[in-house]
Design a protein that fits this description.
single chain, alpha+beta, Monooxygenase
Length: 472
């Protein structure tokens, strides 16, 4: 041992047979250890010797890292959505770097199909979801303050579709509404609340299920969920998301007499969706009352609340995180300074969309400011930079770190109109985002904030990734 240590430099001796016992570990044991390390530590580990460098750059390891940080559902959907031969291995390290360093994407207008086919009418404050490989559009408000009770379905599948065939589903229920929420829980849609064209707020809960039949086409059936005697107060313009396979959370909105709400409610449903149980989550601190905000769940991180319009009619930019701590759900505010973010002055907004995309990040698009000027910018919120709960307890020390969670993205290709109160949803891979409708500037008086028109455009936001010989 002494002879070896004097004749061989210490840095190169790591890979010799007489070096640290760690080098003698079997490859599968080393692999298990590496999967427990953060990415920065993997980079340092790769610099020690050739064997470790080879192991830490293997496609197998980085596919597992992507599964760890993006979720297995996104990775499996991503793999099935690109055309590769059965034996071709994707360059997962390169893909990880591209997604982590994402600074642009492409927009594509989805051309209208044959003019003889029916299309959804222009609307805002509707719902748009991706479930059972289909886009499902329900309700919304239209010209004259009318609500819509129609449901539209378009099959997407795994392929990139430039031509969509919308099919109108005539179910008659739920009743017409706008400002409702609709989330995907498993293979089901769950609708809560909303406002009808008489201004009445509602607090009913509906379950919808899409069925694809070869002969009958696409059907969607709705039924009222039995929640017994306990339900959140009626509201519209609230926010909601699914936080696990059987649980939904809602927050805020506009209640009776136009009062903005700041309460949080949890809906739990059994496996057969025959009934549901609502309970209010009382936590301190908690987000102040608001409407037109967003809730988005990020696997392994928690539920992110962003923006909206507060009690003083001001448009907000605060970020709150709903996390499980000691078997209880807890709200934690993410403190940051707008001046620390390039172009951060434009971040406050209401009526935007916030959608989970590939890589565990939120893509925030559109909305409007306090003067009702509509926005067309795209921002990414990087949840991987969220500090631990212990670090969050000292906001003054984490201000700079949390400002780094924000980055404005560049849009290439088609330039959609600025809009607010549109809806967006991503496919299972999180690589393709579909956006429909909203309120846009008037064609006659585009500078007038009060001159609004409802939009019926559908466009696609696509993350462009290079996978060697495959561009996807």
């Amino acid at each position: 041992m002494a002879k070896t240590s004097t004749s061989t430099p210490r840095s190169s001796n790591v890979g010799s047979s007489s070096s640290s016992p760690m080098v003698k570990l079997a490859e599968d044991h080393l692999f298990t250890i590496l999967l427990l390390l953060p990415v920065d530590s993997l980079v340092s580990f790769a610099m020690t010797c050739k064997r470790f460098r080879s192991l830490t750059t293997s496609d197998t390891l980085w596919e597992s890292i992507c599964r760890r940080e993006w979720g297995s559902t996104s990775v499996d959907a991503f793999k099935s959505s690109i055309n590769t031969s059965k034996n071709q291995q994707l360059p997962w390290l390169r893909l990880y770097k591209q997604v982590s360093q994402l600074d642009s994407f492409s927009c594509h207008k989805l051309p209208d199909p044959d003019s003889e086919l029916m299309l959804p009418t222009p609307r805002a404050s509707h719902s748009l979801n991706f479930v059972s490989d289909c886009l499902v559009l329900f309700g919304g408000g239209s010209e004259g303050g009318r609500d819509l009770d129609d449901t539209w379905v378009a099959y997407i599948g795994n392929d990139f579709q430039r031509m969509l065939k919308w099919q109108k589903v005539n179910s008659g229920i739920p009743s017409g509404r706008f400002g409702h929420t609709c989330v995907v829980i498993g293979d089901n849609l769950v609708v809560f609340g909303g406002i009808n064209d008489h201004g009445m707020r509602q607090n009913d809960t509906w379950v919808g299920q899409v069925v694809i039949c070869e002969n009958l086409g696409i059907t969607l059936s709705w039924r009222l969920l039995d929640v017994r005697s306990v339900a959140p107060p009626p509201r519209g313009a609230h926010a909601a998301c699914c936080i696990d396979k059987r649980t939904m959370v809602i927050h805020g909105g506009i209640g009776l007499y136009g009062l903005r709400l700041g309460d949080t409610w949890i809906l739990e449903v059994p496996e057969n969706f025959c009934s549901g149980t609502w309970r209010e989550l009382v936590a301190h601190p908690s987000p102040p009352p608001r409407s037109g905000h967003t809730l988005t769940c990020i696997e392994g991180t928690g539920t992110v609340l962003f923006g909206g319009r507060g009690l003083g009619y001001d448009v907000l930019h605060d970020v709150w995180l709903l996390q499980a701590s000691e078997d209880q759900l807890k709200w934690v505010q993410m403190f940051y300074n707008l001046q620390d973010i390039p172009e951060g002055v434009s971040l406050p907004r209401v009526g935007h969309s916030a959608t989970l995309i590939l890589g565990g990040r939120l893509l925030i698009y559109g909305g409007e400011d306090s003067q009702r000027h509509r926005k067309g910018d795209f921002w990414v919120f990087d949840a991987s930079k969220i500090p631990s709960i212990k670090e969050q307890s000292t906001p003054s020390n984490s201000m700079g770190l949390q400002a780094n969670m924000w980055r404005r993205l560049k849009a290439k290709g088609y330039k959609p109109n600025c809009r607010s109160f549109h809806r967006a949803c991503a496919d299972h891979s999180g690589r393709r985002l579909y956006v429909f409708g909203g309120m846009v500037d008037s064609l006659l008086h585009p500078a007038e904030a009060s001159e609004l028109r409802f939009d019926g455009e559908l466009f696609l936001v696509k993350l462009e990734l290079e996978t060697g010989s495959v561009r996807c």
